[in-house]
Amino acid sequence: MNDNKVSFTPIQDIGFRNLIERISSMFEKHGQGLIFGIGDDAAVLDKETDKLVFKSQSYQEGVHFDLVYTPLQHLGYKVASLAVSDVVAMNARPKFITINLGLTNKISVEMTELFYKGVKAACDEFSLQLTGGDFVPAGSAISVSVSCIGTSEQPVYRSGAKEGDAICVTGDLGAATCGLMILLREKKHWESLGGETMKPDFEEFSYVVEKQLVPKARLDLINSFSQNLVTPHAMIDITKGLNHNLLDLCNASGVGARIYEAAIPVLPETRAAADELEEDIDKFILFGGEDAQLLFTLPEKEVERFAKAFKDFVVIGKVVNKDEGVKMQTAEGSIMTLHY
Alpha-carbon distance 64 to 136, whole Å? Predict the structure, then answer.
């Protein structure tokens, strides 16, 4: 699907040692809270007075991403941004990141550098410092393991929601999964042509495709909480779909919820793409993932005040007693119980 001509230097031609040196030159070795980063057996971090928040996750080619339609530069940004999303979901600011890559012989030096250009873009955007990682040979599929460390004066857990809280979400939902479905459709078309060189036209679906390939963590929300002295009672990032993540929050907090389908933020671009796919947009919203938006609860008295400072969130429901369950009122007015 991509006919751009680029150099292909096999990694074995320069070796992992020289590859590490080339990638290391893209990042700073020292910085705020970082005494020594890339270039030794391990990174040395300065002592923090805030609480440390740590997240690690792994991705496997063919399971979590497909290089047929995922540019390596986008992949580097995405894995870093999703790690940041988990950290900011704890009301923490990301500080450091490490990445381990399992590389196959189909991945060149230039391709590896493209991946790290994406990582560098995320580091610049979220004020992250890459502190190290490792390269290892892989079989037929590449793998990526990411660890992110952040700091927080007051971590927020998914277990703190209180009855009467407003249930809020940032941004809009369903776009990332909708974008994935568009990409999978185009891949199927490409395969039907025998893998011929082609340039799919994604202009009509650029919004949802971008949301799938380069989801952006909501560090801006955490910064606004701090600036306005607001602390949510509970928070979780929406990476498994609203249904799953809302149930996770409610179960951890020992509460129920009533949300309203009509209040869930969905952009016209996402609805149009879902219509093109002949799919129910609710399926993408409730059961899709990787939106990298945040779901949080606030005391109702805080909502109006915070809304004056931070515009990109909406109230979609209310925390209720556990005995009432987790339910959604549909746009038609019927009540649907949410289950895993």
Answer: 19
Task: Report how far residue 239's alpha carbon sits from residue 176's, in angstroms, rounded to the nearest whole number.
Answer: 10
Which domains does the chain carry? Answer: 11-152 (3.30.1330.10), 166-337 (3.90.650.10)
Residues 37-93: tens digit of each pLDDT: 555 444 465 666 788 888 889 999 999 999 999 999 999 999 999 999 999 999 999
Q: CA 78, CA 292: separation in Å to the nearest integer?
A: 10
Using the CB atoms, write b or e for 160-189: b if 16+ within 10 Å. Answer: bbeeebbbbbbbbbbbbbbbbbbbeebeee
| Interatomic CA distance for residues 320 and 165, integer angstroms | 8
What is the pTM for the complete model shown?
0.88
Region of 183 (left: φ > 0; alpha: ψ -120 to 50; beta: rest) is alpha
d(C-alpha 139, C-alpha 62), whole Å:
13
- For residues 145 and 133, what is the distance between their CA atoms, to the nearest angstrom? 9
CB 176 within 8 A of CB 292: yes
d(CA 240, CA 248): 10
Bridge partners (DSSP) listed for residue 315: 168
